[in-house]
Specification:
With 480 residues, the chain is of the alpha/beta class. It is built from 15 helices and 18 strands. The strands form four sheets. It has a seven-stranded mixed sheet, with helices on both faces. Strands 8-7-6-9-10-18 form a six-stranded mixed sheet, with helices on both faces. Strands 1-5-4 form a three-stranded mixed sheet, covered by helices on one side. Helix 2 runs antiparallel to helix 5. The longest helix is centred in the N-terminal third of the chain and has 22 residues. The model has no long low-confidence stretch (mean pLDDT 97). The structure holds NADP nicotinamide-adenine-dinucleotide phosphate and magnesium ion. The site of NADP nicotinamide-adenine-dinucleotide phosphate (NAP) has 26 residues, from helix 7 and helix 8.
Length: 480
């Protein structure tokens, strides 16, 4: 282990900037209402402290929310001009910026991610999505979908826990810009920023019923996507649930987009600038504790530089700071839930049983909360579970290759196809890889960069449909 050159002083963000109520209702038709179902608790995964009690929307509550969305669509939103929809979206975007610190703190408390990530990535990108789509709202006739493209109607949207507010923005901003109304269900473990977003809708004077938030778990999500009066279903989450939703929606008139899991290859050629590539590997798999569908969880490194890359990577991982997510110097926060921690432990255990070599960064794990040290596996073969299954945690599987063809074959040897990375100095090689790798996004000499103008989505079992950019608008317009 390298000697630590100096210690950082604690730099905690203040939790006083956010008011968390002890109990929350559902946001339906422009008001917070009590649900008719049971209630559940949401905790801070870094401390196991209960943050609030939240209503679990029953089938009846979901029905009420869909009716409110339908009513708002018929009476108001479908008659609101693109120019005026744009004004509301710009307003929401500006309020998100004004209240960014509050949102960042709340996201970190409810999710466990480091404050520097919620502050510098999640919240600014969420605002950027609203700004971007606000710009489209009055320009849909110029988007290449005909002179007067129509919205679909009511959108049912179900999102996961890894980027709670950001996934909400990816779903709600394009839907409203295109003229749809929405009912959104956040994940059970991270409902709080969606509920704070409901306050933003009020602050922006958004007409009641245009945005409805129903909290709950899988059953609430199921009731929402199966509701007979929704026109469009948008889902981000696991491939397994995505398949169940696809079956439920099959044969109905509902339109569907699915953004599911991934097992991205991050390919390092021997001419790549190694130190930069190491930073990219870290960003690819240890950003957000690896709870990222497009994470670079399979490192493919050219054999001639493999030892050097792994050695420098281990040295770099030794300097990552794991701990209090509210500390501004923290790099690795808490695992979002005990269930996810268990899944990571099970899969890494299988990695060892199957013969891969495990190495974890030396770091002290806090006593309370859910934690997992940054880990990498070498001696991994393509048949290993850790090379095939999405672990969704801070765990990297390292494989090697000799030729570009072998790199392409191995990168594509997965049922998924969400993203990939390529590191090389040769422009021609970047273009060849981008063409040959079956992935929705291919990053060149970078990783995990997002922009609202750039469409995002998968091939194969990573789902279908695109979010963001001009392509993402098509998912919310009646254009086949
Ligand atoms: P998940 O079960 O697919 O959850 C995603 C969302 O769908 C949550 O809001 C969830 O509710 C809801 N849901 C669950 N069952 C449903 C159903 N039958 N019908 C409609 N909605 C339903 O994913 P997860 O349990 O959070 O994570 C499991 C695995 O999924 C992870 O280990 C990871 O591999 C993958 N994952 C991928 C992404 C991604 O961005 N592609 C994100 C998260 C997870 P509740 O969770 O609130 O119960
Ligand atoms: Mg929570």
């Amino acid at each position: 282990m390298q000697p630590t050159p100096f210690e950082y002083a604690p730099a905690p963000e203040s939790r006083a900037v956010v008011d968390i109520a002890s109990s929350y209702g559902l946001y339906i038709d422009g008001a917070f209402v009590d649900g008719t179902g049971r209630r559940f608790k949401t905790v801070n995964p870094a401390t196991e402290e209960v943050l609030a009690e939240v209503a679990e929307a029953s089938g009846g509550d979901v029905d009420r929310a869909v009716k409110a969305a339908r009513h708002a669509y018929n009476r108001v939103w479908s008659k609101t001009s693109g120019r005026d929809r744009g004004k509301y979206l710009f307003r929401i975007a500006r309020i998100l910026q004004e209240r960014a610190r509050e949102f960042a703190v709340l996201e970190t408390l409810d999710n466990g991610k480091p404050i520097k990530e919620s502050r510098d990535v999640d919240i600014p990108l969420a605002a950027a999505h609203f700004f971007y789509h606000a710009g489209w709202a009055d320009k849909l006739s110029y988007a290449g979908f005909g002179s007067d493209p129509k919205p679909l109607g009511v959108a049912a949207q179900v999102i996961p826990w890894n980027f709670p507010l950001l996934m909400l923005a990816w779903k709600i901003a394009p839907a409203l810009a295109a003229g749809n109304t929405v009912v959104l269900k956040p994940a059970e473990t991270t409902p709080l920023t969606a509920l704070l977003f409901a306050e933003v809708c009020e602050q922006a004077d958004l007409p009641p019923g245009v945005v409805n938030i129903v909290t709950g778990a899988g059953a609430t999500g199921q009731a929402l996507v199966e509701h007979a009066d929704v026109d469009k279903v948008a889902f981000t989450g696991s491939t397994e649930v995505g398949k169940a939703i696809a079956r439920a929606v099959a044969g109905t008139r509902k339109r569907l987009t699915l953004e599911l899991g991934g097992k991205a290859a991050n390919v390092i050629f021997d001419d790549a600038p190694i130190d930069q590539a190491v930073e990219g590997i870290v960003r690819g798999i240890f950003f957000n504790q690896g709870h990222v569908c497009c994470a670079g969880s399979r490192l493919l490194v050219q054999e001639t530089v493999a030892d050097e890359v792994v050695e420098r990577l281990k040295r770099r991982l030794t300097t990552l700071r794991l701990g209090d997510p509210m500390d501004k110097n923290t790099d690795i926060g808490a695992i979002n839930s005990p269930e996810q921690l268990e899944r990571i432990r099970t899969l890494t255990g299988i990695g060892e049983e199957e013969g891969a070599t495990r190495w974890s960064a030396p770091c002290e794990l806090p006593d309370r909360g859910y934690w997992f040290a940054p880990t990498l596996f070498t001696d991994v073969s393509q048949a290993h579970r850790i090379a095939r299954d999405e672990i969704f945690g801070p765990v990297l599987s390292v494989l090697t290759f000799r030729t570009p063809d072998e790199a392409i074959a191995k990168a594509n040897n997965t049922p998924y196809g969400l993203s990939a990375g390529v590191w090389t100095e040769k422009g021609s090689r970047i273009l060849r890889m981008a063409n040959a790798v079956r992935a929705g996004v291919v990053w060149a000499n970078t990783f995990n960069h997002f922009d609202p103008a750039s469409p995002f989505g998968g091939y194969k079992e990573s789902g279908f449909g695109r979010e963001g950019g001009r392509h993402g608008l098509a998912a919310y317009l009646d254009v086949a």
